[in-house]
Design brief:
With about 325 residues, the chain is mostly helical.
Length: about 325
């Protein structure tokens, strides 16, 4: 009755902000009204006015409204993340937030939420992304989710909207990270700079406790012996251009006297540059004699450092060991 009175008086109501089930209920109730006597209308209006006058505080009432109200009073990083989340919401629809998550994040939803919620979430994804997520979801759970999709024919739009809002609140707000790089990248960079014995000891220990992490870590590590299998011959001249000539000669002298993998990388470098330059470096290296272990590692590290810096800058692309194995 109050809504009808306001509409009759020409008021513009923002009823679309209400949940759809309340909008539907309001429509049904208004449709059931016929003629109402004047005394009843007056009584309803007075009761409604009394309730309004009794209100002592009005709050946003929604997550998005709270973000808008508090954004200027929160810490900068948190406010920015909350604003970004709110920006992705369109007309109360939080599903874009979930759809824009990485597939790995959506897989977490598939593994943590109820089967029914997962079925709804998978149905909201674009086909290609849904297929990717389903492929990465454990087999038994993936089968249960696909079956549950067959039971979603009668799910109401409002239920889907509320599921999207709940998932966006739990998974859509990116956590502030203490480190920019992943653990494997950080530890790989550290081990790149450690002596060979220490590096191999650490990798052996990790191989026992966490083989998967150890394997990923070996890919992130790039040492002198990795030059031959992971660097393209055409990239070598650019990579060593910035290396000091004396350092280069020392590294080659030590490399030619190293183990099989070290020798392979040394010869690979020499084969990838001009014959005249390679011959000169060989001659200079032969005159140095035996190289101290510490000096050898320092010189070789300078070459691998130059290569890693170019790879990090995107100037060159290192060959992935797994891709190389697949090709063979």
């Amino acid at each position: 009755m109050v809504v009808q009175m306001l509409i009759g008086d020409g008021a513009q109501l923002s009823l679309s902000q209400l949940p759809e089930h309340l909008q539907l209920l309001l429509t049904q109730e208004l449709g059931a009204l016929r003629l109402v006597d004047r005394d009843t209308v007056t009584t309803v209006a007075e009761e409604f006015l009394a309730e309004l006058q009794a209100i002592g505080l009005s709050a946003p009432g929604t997550h998005d409204g709270a973000v808008m109200a508090l954004a200027d009073h929160l810490s900068g990083p948190l406010a920015d993340r909350l604003r970004q989340q709110t920006k992705e919401v369109r007309d109360g629809d939080h599903w874009p937030t979930i759809i824009n998550l990485d597939a790995s994040e959506v897989v977490k939803i598939m593994c943590a939420e109820s089967i029914e919620v997962c079925a709804v979430a998978l149905s909201k994804l674009p086909v290609a992304k849904a297929a990717d997520v389903l492929t990465k979801t454990p087999g038994d759970r993936a089968r249960r989710i696909t079956y549950a999709i067959s039971q979603t024919a009668d799910v109401s739009p409002d239920a889907v909207r509320r599921i999207g809002a709940a998932l966006a609140q739990d998974y859509g707000l990116a956590n502030a990270l203490a480190f920019e790089k992943a653990p494997v990248q950080r530890l790989g960079a550290i081990l790149n700079a450690t002596p060979t014995e220490t590096r191999e000891e650490v990798l052996a220990g990790l191989g026992t406790t966490d083989p998967t992490f150890a394997n990923d870590l070996r890919k992130a590590i790039f040492t002198f012996k990795d030059i031959a299998p992971r660097v393209k011959p055409t990239d070598i001249p650019n990579c060593i251009r910035a290396v000091d000539a004396q350092v280069m000669t020392t590294a080659i002298a030590a490399g030619l006297a190293g183990d099989e993998q070290i020798v392979a990388s040394t010869e690979f470098i020499l084969d990838s540059i001009s014959q005249r330059m390679a011959a000169q470096i060989r001659e200079d290296a032969s005159e140095l004699g035996t190289i101290k272990k510490a000096d050898a590692e320092t010189a070789m590290s300078e070459i691998t450092k130059a290569i890693r810096e170019m790879a990090d800058a995107g100037t060159i692309t290192l060959i992935d060991p797994d891709d190389d194995q697949d090709e063979t």
